[in-house]
Structure formats: structure tokens, C-alpha cells
Amino acid sequence: MIDRQRASDIGTDEPTRSRAADERAAAGVGPWVAFWAQLAVLAFLAIFGAFAASAAVEPGDYACGLILAITAILLLFLCTKGYFDGNPLVLGDFLLVDDIANLVLAIVVFVALGVAGIVTAASVAGGGLYVGGVTLFAVSVLAILLSMKRVFDNLDHRH
Q1: Which end of the chain is less crowded, N or C, counting CB atoms within 10 A of the terminal residue's CB?
Q2: Burial of 98 per CB tally in 10 Å (0-12, 13-18, 19+)
Q3: Which pTM does this prediction carry?
């Protein structure tokens, strides 16, 4: 209704497209491919987590697989919702910080997660909990380094 009213104010009978649709059309195929590739990776992780949970042999395999599947599904829904709302969710923007104050907080949180991952991995001999703990540590280190890079790149762009 609003688009038709706007179109009649302009003097045409054709409804106008939304600004987000115009920006997506002007951006080309690259963002579209990136969006679907991101969804494909998240769907693969959800399926992999479900299979890992169903084939649980070692202690913690079920929990790690289920957490992976649920997390991937939630991120998949967030990405899809953002895309159709016209504000696509880029996981780098979602997980990384932009300024020094938030960087300090992110470092504290990710160091705590990394230590929890290492302690968890050290407490078991093998299996899903071991792999999950080591992965949590590696992802925490990666998140800290990428956040630091992003903050310092933003500081360089300002000067």
C-alpha cells in the first residue's frame, strides 16, 4: 500500500522497490554467492553435529555434537533473517569488535573461553570433549587475533 502511494506521488503506477533490494541488485552476484556459501557451511556443520551426537562413543561426544548442531542452526536462522530484513548478517561483523574498549572485554571473554577449552581437553583422554576443548581454544585465539586486527585497521583508517 505504501509503495503504491509513493509510486502515485511520483506519477507512475509501478510500485517502487525497497532500498535494500536496490542495493542488493547493484552489488551483483558476489554477495549472493557469499550468502548462500555461508548458509551451506552452516547447514553442513548442523548436519555434522547431528551425526556426531548420534554416533556418540566417548564421554562428551553427544553434548559436543548437539551443541554444534544447535549453534549452527541458530546462526543459520540469524543469517537468513538478516538477509531478508535487508541487513545481512556477516559473521565477522557479528563476532568481532571495532574499538579498543570492546577489544579489552572481548579479550577477557575469549581468554576465559580458551582456558575453559584447554582445561576441558586436559581433563579427558580423548573423544569429543577433547576435540571440542582444543577447538574452543583455537577459535578463541583466532577470535582475539582477528578482533585485534580489525580494531587496529579501524584506527589506521581514521588517521
Answers
A1: C
A2: middle
A3: 0.64
